[in-house]
Amino acid sequence: MHKKKIFLILFSLIFNLNLLAQSLPPAPPDNPEVIPMSEIHEGMEGVGYTVIHGTNVEPFKVKVLSVLRKMWNGSDAILIELEGLNLEHSGTVAGMSGSPIYFDGKIAGALAFGWNYAKDPIAGVTPIEEMYKLYNDTNVSKVASISKNSLQTPLMFSGFNGNSFSEYSDKFKEMGFFPMQTGGAISDENQSGKFLFGDSVAIVLVDGDLSIAGVGTVSHTDDEKFLLFGHSMWSKGRLRAPVSRAYINHIVASAASSFKIGAAYSNYLGYTVYDGTFGVSGVYGEVPENTMIPVNLQVEDQSFLNKDFNFRVLNDPTYFSYLLSMAIYEAVTSSAGSEEDGVFSISYEIETDYFEKPYKVTDRILTYSSKDAFREAIEQLIAPVDFFIYNNFNRIGIKSIKLSIKRSNLEYAFLDDITLLETRAVAGETIHLRVGITPYGQEKTYINIPVKLPVNLITDIYSIYAANEYIYNYAERLFMPNKYKIRNLDDVMRIYGKSYDDKALKVWLYSSSRGVQIGKDSFPMLPVSRYGVIADNYTSDKSSVINAIEGEYNMPYSILGLMKIDIIIEGANKYENR
């Protein structure tokens, strides 16, 4: 008897599941009518469509629990309960955003939001009437921020190691994404030329050897255009990004928030047009040429395999630099040991639509530690990129970027110490520095450097610095920022495009008193009477001024490090009393 009851229960369960599957239309209608919000009421039963594995669109049952009046940015929303496709176990899934919802064969809207840690598969639906407005919305002002209840968009990272993913993924979480590491993009030339209602879809941010794509669901489509997500992806307003189908590997159930794991197809069907409060709109067709910026990155290392990376980054001014930084960090850290030492140098070439010739930097030394060098390489490249994007003079479009990072061994030396043979000096005299240098793998050696002091010094305590030419330039920027202020686009080439000799040992004098910088001209040591007049009336920078001392001291190897020593210098009388 006991066995018979168990058999009857199992039979009833299987029968009801089969009945449920049979009662739901297997595919959504192509050109559905719209059911207005005025006709939605509690207890209505309907059907939704999404992809839970591969590319097959499958139905699930929905039931209206309530209508939420003025719930989201002044719009009503539909509160529904989901059933089928194992949603009773997983709950609402990140990546289902945009799943079309139907009642009586009419489309009501797109599944768009839910609640973390919910025990039941409860979700909210954005009315399709609000989403249709995106087809004609050309408003470029900032849209409303993403609702905290919006389903997070799974952001698939392919080709990224754990270090780079951990370093950058938190920023994407702040943007409302659900970042995760997954497999690479898939190629399928036999795909249909348009989406289906309920298709899994990917909006691509990076493609090529590295890939980043946000995954959601198609809410509506016709022969020319489509609607996605049911909520904003980035709160961007106008947005142009490639769009493809996505392959779903699996749904991972989580008490916090279940999510889809998948990957973008490399065959693009169209591109986005507008990222609005209630969804993302797009059109079919070839992606415009300047939508993605090609990047070539070569890593050359004597101790590791050389690698060549080719990828493209979404040409979006808000996030381009961040996406590029992450891609570069991944490429270099996956090619060379992150804790290795050596001399790292960077060369890069940025092609724009403004300058006739590419903006170039050649073999600029970075540092001897790879961990620091990789970050410095990113900073040095991103600085001019950001200026091109955000400058106030002219719009500059970036067309391509080529980047090379090299590491060489046994060719550098550290500055270890510095001493003076004289404890005091007089302006105009020649003093002698004794600099300790330790070449890689060798014992420390000392060199004597004669330094002729300027004659126009007043009595004061001065600091003498010794470092390579690049660090000298960095010190000038730090202490004399007005000299490096960009007043026009030509200054970009003059300031950022300068090459530096890392084997040239520079010596300079620094005092925090009475320095004046007017435009590109410096007045490092002025008498009190002159300083007061100029500083009050003309100068745009009243802080300290660096005074370069004559001479560069060329070494047979790259110089790393910075040394400083203080000295009292007596000013010449004719400058003291004037």
As a whole number of angstroms, the C-alpha radius of gyration is 32 Å
Strand order of the largest sheet: 1-2-3-7-6-5
Please provide the count of β strands: 32
What structural class results from the helix and strand content?
A: alpha+beta
Low-confidence stretches: 13-21, 525-544, 574-578
Structure description:
This protein has 578 residues and is an alpha+beta fold. Helix 4 runs antiparallel to helix 5 (320-333) and helix 5 packs antiparallel against helix 6 (370-390). Strand 17 (292-301) and strand 18 form a beta hairpin. The longest helix is centred in the first third of the chain and has 22 residues, at 2-23. The strands form five sheets. Strands 1-2-3-7-6-5 form a six-stranded antiparallel barrel. The protein has a six-stranded antiparallel β-barrel with strand order 10-11-12-16-15-14. The protein is built from ten helices and 32 strands.
Features:
disordered C terminus; six-stranded antiparallel barrel; 578 residues; 42% strand; six-stranded antiparallel beta barrel; single chain
Topology:
Elements: H1 2-23, E1 45-51, E2 57-72, E3 75-83, H2 87-90, E4 93-94, E5 100-103, E6 106-113, E7 122-127, H3 128-132, E8 153-158, H4 162-174, E9 177-181, E10 200-208, E11 211-221, E12 225-228, E13 237-238, E14 242-252, E15 258-276, E16 279-284, E17 292-301, E18 307-314, H5 320-333, E19 343-352, E20 359-365, H6 370-390, E21 398-408, E22 412-420, E23 424-426, E24 430-439, E25 445-452, E26 460-468, H7 469-479, H8 490-496, E27 504-511, E28 516-518, E29 521-523, H9 528-537, E30 545-554, E31 558-560, E32 563-570, H10 573-576
Parallel strand pairs: 4-15, 8-9, 17-21, 22-31, 23-32
Antiparallel strand pairs: 1-2, 1-5, 2-3, 3-7, 5-6, 6-7, 8-11, 10-11, 10-14, 10-18, 11-12, 12-16, 13-15, 14-15, 15-16, 17-18, 19-20, 19-21, 22-24, 24-25, 26-27, 26-32, 27-30, 28-29
